[in-house]
Amino acid sequence: MVPVEWYLLLAVGLFCIGLFGVLTRRDALYFLMSIELMMNAANINFVAFALYYGDLTGQVFALFVIALAAAEVAIGIGIILVLYRNFGVTDVTVPTEMRW
């Protein structure tokens, strides 16, 4: 059996990569992918601790996070499409405020 520390190291690595992507990238698609990495790191933690403690609660929370991630992507893609249609770029630093 794999020790829980290895799962936690994997989750920390994924979370740090996602955080680095959020802080350094300016493209909206990279933002979404970085946030997805951070949410997957949280899922790994939930499932690892559910395995460690023998409880299914962490896996249930992971399913809710997956559903939240799907909704976040659907709304995020819509926002990115509006951003591209109005400004012609997906760079989040170009528009300072969204107007009709």
From TrEMBL:
Domain of life: Archaea
One BP annotation, GO: ATP synthesis coupled electron transport
Pfam families: Oxidored_q2 (PF00420)
Gene3D superfamilies from the UniProt entry: 1.10.287.3510
NCBIfam families attached to this UniProt entry: PRK05715.1-2 (NF004320), PRK05715.1-5 (NF004323)
Organism, scientific name: Halorubrum aidingense JCM 13560
Transmembrane stretches, start-end: 6-23, 30-54, 60-84
InterPro entries documented for this protein: NADH_UbQ_OxRdtase_chain4L/K, NUOK/Mnh_C1-like
Chief localisation class: membrane
Record PANTHER family: NADH-UBIQUINONE OXIDOREDUCTASE CHAIN 4L, NADH-UBIQUINONE OXIDOREDUCTASE SUBUNIT ND4L
GO cellular component: NADH dehydrogenase complex
Membrane topology: Multi-pass membrane protein
GO molecular function terms attached to this record: oxidoreductase activity, acting on NAD(P)H
UniProt keyword annotations, A-Z: Membrane, Transmembrane, Transmembrane helix, Transport, Ubiquinone
Record localization: Membrane
Name of this chain's protein: NADH-ubiquinone oxidoreductase chain 4L
Protein family: Belongs to the complex I subunit 4L family.
